[in-house]
Amino acid sequence: MTPPGAGPARAGRRPLFRMLNGMRERETGGAALRGDCESCFGLCCVALPFRRSADFAVDKDAGTPCGNLGEDNRCGIHTRLRSEGFTGCTVYDCFGAGQRVSQVTFGGQDWRTGPPGQARRMVEAFPVVRQLHELLWYLTEALTLPAARPVHADLRRLLAETERLAAGTPEELAALDVAAHRQRVNVLLLRTSELMRAGTRGKKKNRRGADLMGARLKGADLRGADLRGAYLIAADLTGADLRGADLIGADLRDADLTDADLTGAFFLTQPQLTAARGSTGTTLPASLSRPAHWTTGL
């Protein structure tokens, strides 16, 4: 569900996503689903790999600390990430997994100073919890959608189960079949999507997983469209009508959303928006914030 190429980020004293993305609070079962870098030990900058590309200036293997990560677990270039070639860092979000693994799963013990083997265990646990927290985000959103009321009871049950799994011990997390659980959740999210888009008048476009990289979709009528997992990299969506569209996992890197209407679009996350380009004329769902670089260019 996460766009390919998304990578880690780590802020200075203030949490990165408050500073760059303005992500709004979402909680479930006591778990904050927003990255709070102040309460994390820089796990995204250690656990996750990235490759030199338009998103990252260097190669880094999983489990190897990023060269920009300081001893204080803060990024040494967080104010210059875009200009230094680390755009991927500015759009990454752990959905609160970092602070949970740091402060709950491992009881506040830093990977640098913990007992032997702890760094490896934290590196293994982080991506598992991150996936579970992403699912918690989508399930929580689905429960706010009135059209999905017929499946709200099932959504609540899976939400509680996902929260229980995310609260597991390091050993339980290591043994978890995350892919199987994601599939169970996805069945309900698909049903939610069908219920949501059923209310859209006219023919609803099915572009699920479509290769729309660089597509010319200026002013396109995409109301109620299924754009799940679609590749919209560098697509021209200027003035497009995306009201009520399902955008779960759609890759919006460098997509032009200038003056596009995203009212009622669902399963859209802040990182997806931050990876795109837009303007003050872009209409957003109420739960999301306009990325700072849309107006500042930074």
Characterise this structure.
The chain has about 300 residues and is mainly α. Helix content is about 35%, strand content about 0%. It has a two-stranded antiparallel sheet. β1 and β2 form a beta hairpin.
Kindly state the percentage of residues in helix.
25-40%
With strands numbered from the N-terminus, the spatial order across the biggest sheet is: 1-2
What would you report as the Rg, rounded to the nearest angstrom?
19 Å
Average of the residue pLDDT scores: 88
**So how many helices?**
10
Biggest beta sheet attributes = 2 strands, antiparallel
**pLDDT < 50 stretches:** 1-24
Overall, the morphology is globular
Series of secondary-structure elements, N-terminal to C-terminal:
HEEHHHHHHHHH
Q: Which keywords apply here?
A:
single chain, 298 residues, mainly alpha, two-stranded antiparallel sheet, 10 helices, 34% helix, 1% strand, globular, disordered N terminus
